[in-house]
Amino acid sequence: MTNFSHLIFDLDGTLVNSKLGLHNALNYVLDAMSLDLDSEAVIDQLIGPPIQDGLKHILKFDEKQSQLAMRLFREYYSERGMYEAELYPGILELLQELDGQGRKLYVATSKKDEFMKRVLHHFELDRYLIDAEGAGSGEKHTKAELITRVMDRNQIFSSPEVVMVGDTKFDIVGGKANEISTIAVGYGFGNNEELKGLNPDYFVEEAEDLYELLI
């Protein structure tokens, strides 16, 4: 068992399996724009970083295409996609136990504030969190910057007793940039070999393993 005093969690791919809703939103975009692309082949790469970055760098959209795609994506996701998700096994119990032990829990996510708040409330995760930091109204932020904001606002100082938990390289790089511990989870949307190559302090394969590590 570890004894972290402050735990900062990523949201998509760490606490919530949001793949179905995001995949459906992407298909909605591709259908509306009459694009013949294999959404299954790219969806995992689009989860984690800001969606506008993925549209530009992974799907190679130009600025005009990106703006249209973002509007369509958010149109579907705000009405249906965010609810087409599920908690990973044991996550709710994990947060309940950590909260009961007096640990301080936070979220740092690249999801827009509006969507982040609605997802946290829908899955009743917000009751266990002291604070959560999202990407505002969709501005571009690095995960390191989001983590820094959570830490600064809550007067959390860099320490091995503070940990970032996430499923992509952005979470691990962001945690290290803030000089805190890192836990990479292999059940989300990141590349496991890439994650291990970043030398996180801990790596867990399944959500149930995260419970064993933290509790």
Strands of the largest sheet, in order across it? Answer: 5-4-1-6-7-8
Do you know the CATH architecture of the largest domain?
3-Layer(aba) Sandwich
Succession of helices and strands: EEHHHHEHEHEHEHEHEH
Our Rg estimate from Cα atoms comes to: 17 Å
Poorly predicted residue ranges: none
Judging from the principal axes of the Cα atoms, what is the shape? globular
What is the oligomer described by this structure?
single chain
Helix percent band: 40-55%
Task: Give me the count of strands.
Answer: 8
Tell me the distance between the termini: 6 Å
Query: What top-tier CATH class of the largest domain fits best?
Result: Alpha Beta
Explain what you see.
The structure is a single chain. The chain is α/β, with parallel strands linked by helices and 215 residues long. The chain folds into 2 domains: 6-17 and 85-214, HAD superfamily/HAD-like (Rossmann fold, 3-Layer(aba) Sandwich); 19-83, Putative phosphatase, domain 2 (DNA polymerase, domain 1, Orthogonal Bundle). It has 10 helices and 8 strands. The protein has helices at 19-32, 39-46, 51-57, 63-79, 91-100, 113-122, 143-153, 169-177, 192-197, 207-214, and strands spanning 6-9, 16-17, 86-87, 104-108, 131-133, 162-166, 181-185, 202-204. It has a 6-stranded parallel beta sheet, with helices on both faces. α1 (19-32) packs across α4 and α7 crosses α8. It is globular. The protein starts with 5 loop residues before the first strand and ends with a helix. The mean pLDDT is 92.
